[in-house]
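Hello Y.,

Per our agreement to keep a running log of every chain we model this quarter, I'm adding this entry. I've kept the format consistent with earlier entries: sequence first, then predicted structure.
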Amino acid sequence: MSRSLRVLGIDPGLTRCGIGVVDVSPTRAASLVHVGVVRSAPTDPIEKRLAAIAAGIREVLHAHDPHVVAVERVFAQNNRHSVMGTAQASGIALLLAAEHGIPAATHTPSEVKAAVTGYGAADKLQVQTMVARVLRLDALPQPADAADALAIALCHAWRGGAASPADDSALTPAQRAWRDAEKRRTPPTRVARTHVRTAP
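Predicted structure for the entry above:
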């Protein structure tokens, strides 16, 4: 029987880092495994804040053993200080994935919103609402950082799951099952040939 793909989604941030773990079957049905927020105090020195974020992510990695880590990609904002903190937290998440031998991927906010709501400019309430519907939750996931983390995990799974390494032996059984299911689900793309007439 095909196994589900377990994805750890991370919405990086220094003050609040959203964490969400979901199981997604080859049929794309999803269920909640874990959701939460790792916090650090803005008054702490940067090294202590990064250590707190790392400890929180590491705890989730050990507790839930995901097959892949998906992180929201840092994008340009007017607030450089905010971007720097987000980038640092993102780097911590990607580093921990590498240390645990887990594949990692990044997705832009618009990719995540489009995957979950069908609209790349959806607001946070729309994302929370769709995440709750997909995961069959009784209430909207709170805070928004946690909902974003779940959306990132769902986006990664629905956009093709873990990237397939060139060496098939590097895939886990769940990743192989997901890849094979994706191949069966998606028909091969036919490329139309266009004949171009050249002037005599």
